Amino acid sequence: MELSVSSTSPALLKLNHHFLSKNYLPIKIPSLHFANDKKLPSFYRQTKRPSFLRKFASPASSSIAVGPSNDRLPADIKVTETQEPNSRVRLSVEVPPAVCEDCYKRVMSEFTKQAKVPGFRPGKDVPESILLSYVGKQNVQKATVESILKRTLPHAMSSVTGRALRDSVQIATKFTDMEKTYLSLNSLRYDVVVDVAPEVIWIPENGYRDLKIVVEIDSEIDAQRASEQELRQRHKSLGSMRIITDRGLQVINILIYSPSLLLLLVKVYLTLHGMIQDINKRVYAISSKCNTREKNLYQIGDVAVLDVSATKIDKDESNVQNIPAAESKGFHFDTELCDRVIPGFLDSIIGIQRGETKSFPLVFPESWKQENLRGVHAQFTVECKELFYRDLPELDDSFADKLLPGCTTLQQVKESLLQKFLEVEQTAREQATDNAILDQLCKMVEIDIPQSLFEEQGRQLYGAKLLQIQANMKLNEQQLASLSSPKAVNEFLENQKENITRVIKQNLAVGDIFKRENLQFSTEDLVKEVENSIAEFKRHKQEYNEERVEEQVQEVLEGAKVLEWLREHSEIQYISR
Questions:
Q1: Which residue from 151, 64, 59 is spatially nearest to 101, judged by alpha carbons?
Q2: Residue 345's closest CA among 375, 310, 317?
Q3: CB 3.0-4.6 Å disulfide test: which of 252, 323, 458, 506 passes with 500?
Q4: Residues facing residue 377 across a β-bridge
Q5: Structure confidence by residue, pLDDT tens digits, 486-537
Q6: pTM for the complete prediction?
Q7: At 260, is the pLDDT very low, low, confident or very high (cuts 50, 70, 90)?
Q8: pLDDT in tens, 93-112
Q9: Does the keyword Phosphoprotein apply (predicted)?
Q10: Is the dihedral of CA 498, 500, 506, 509 positive or negative?
Q11: Residues 346-359, mean pLDDT to the nearest whole number
């Protein structure tokens, strides 16, 4: 099963309730991570923080900083900071013998309190040699190394305070190597790697303040056209299908300015082509769509039931392969919706009769939705199983309620449908504008993305897609386990690398603009949206983490405020495609 993610949706504006629910929080991970140590599967470990822009970890709050940074050490430690790719910092830490000796004394003191050594009262002093023999020298050594780490790590991390990304800290030195160093030198050396907040570099500097955006609007979302198509589809649902036995598939295409002349020509055409039985139905079907102010392209035709197959051929026709995506049995083809099939398909089957088979070559256009078929040369074979024409009633006010419940006149139906699609058009226009802005921002920033940030964002996208599939298909445990496996997740991260990177850059760019322009949103808005989100959880009877709900709502509001600001300060041009 293939998973994919849309590259146009601005992820920063979507509040993902599933990832805020406690139902999806992972098992708590250990405090310390060492190189080559086993960890929980990364999918469960990384999805625990739903917010994309994670809070920075202070030494005391980091999952790895298990001791207070204000614990005064008997001597200073030496920390060397080295910058590494992907916004990662390596901290090389050298702990002097004085600190190691102090940690050893603390460990021995603790063992003295807790150990029940035969012949000694609990809590009383025990000679060091006897205590070492009872506890085990190796156990004391391990405990001392761990104590050194817990006490010194917060001090070592102080140089990246406010920059370190939470849950990205890892001790790169093997624990066994640290034991050997401590045993031989009575000192300790170890390396820590941590991802830090990446710098957002604008090219040019502050270029977002003078954006020039070209927004492509799909012609299919034109409100007037969409409302007319919707009315036509509802009109079709009121009619019946009549079998054609005495002719082949026919379609009329007419481009004309005058509605009255259009209707006259349609009548003449239908009469000459033996389609007298449906003259009134077809003429009325287009009369209500005629626009006197614009030239009109009308297409009226039959419905065919087809068996379709296609093969891919090389230019020399030596390698023939089936194209499963183009195969269909019992395909109900409405000739009035020919824009939904490959260009040239309709023209190639005009005149086909019931029981007849036609074969013809076509080339998939470069704009075809399935990328793997773009530019492919294909040989289509089509068998016509049935042919129908529509017997439609003449629309008047008596059909208003059937066309749109609650309406009493045909005019009211048209106005209501138009208003509905005007709202859809406005929403689509706003969404397309936001997507165009975000795409432009992505091209204007250079960001050295930390690997932990990439993996977290990718796993959030994967998890959201997995939850969507689970809701639609009700996966069984075996299917869910297969899709949740590290292999499946890593394949998704690799296949969607470009899209994940784009989403991260968009989010970081938006966050940077919010800070640079000192934008704000009201506390009332935050409280309201948090309450709405919590109400949504309760309505679906899901548990939630209120702090995380508030974090993500805040990011959503920040994103909305930035896009609003950018729309006001950008030069935007709209074109149809």
A1: 151
A2: 310
A3: 458
A4: 363
A5: 999 999 999 999 999 999 999 999 999 999 999 999 999 999 999 998 988 8
A6: 0.63
A7: low
A8: 999 999 999 999 999 988 88
A9: no
A10: negative
A11: 93
Name the maximum alpha-carbon separation found in the chain: 119
* H or E, element range at 106: helix 97-114
By three-state DSSP, how is residue 352 classified? coil
Mean per-residue pLDDT over the chain, rounded: 79
Q: Please, what is the Cα angle at 52 between 49 and 57, to 5 degrees?
A: 65
Residue found by looking up tokens 């919707």 in the block: 230
Task: Determine if the peptide bond prior to 204 is cis (ω within 30°).
Answer: yes
Cα dihedral 474/478/481/486 (nearest 10):
-130
**Tokens representing residue 165 in the block:** 């990304």
Output the six-digit token pair for 40: 């929980």
Task: Give the phi and the psi of residue 79 in degrees, each rounded to 5.
Answer: -125, 125
Handedness of CA 56, 62, 64, 67 (dihedral sign): positive
| Closest by Cα among 28, 8, 9, 47 to 459 | 47
CA atoms in the 13 A half-sphere facing the CB of 156: 34
Q: Which tokens in the block code for residue 348?
A: 């190639």
d(CA 69, CA 154): 5
> 212-217 and 571-576: which strand pairing?
parallel
Token duo for residue 326: 């183009």
| Residue 270 to residue 264: CA distance in whole angstroms | 10
Q: Tokens 């309505």 appear where?
A: 539
Helix, strand, coil share (%) of the chain residues, nearest 5: 50, 20, 35
Residue with tokens 């048209």: 414
For residue 275, CA distances in Å to 269, 349, 390, 575 come to: 8, 18, 12, 40
Tokens linked to 214:
């070209």
CB 388 within 8 A of CB 302: yes
Residues near 522 by beta carbon (within 8 Å), at least 6 away in sequence: none
Q: Which residue has the tokens 């932990």?
A: 452
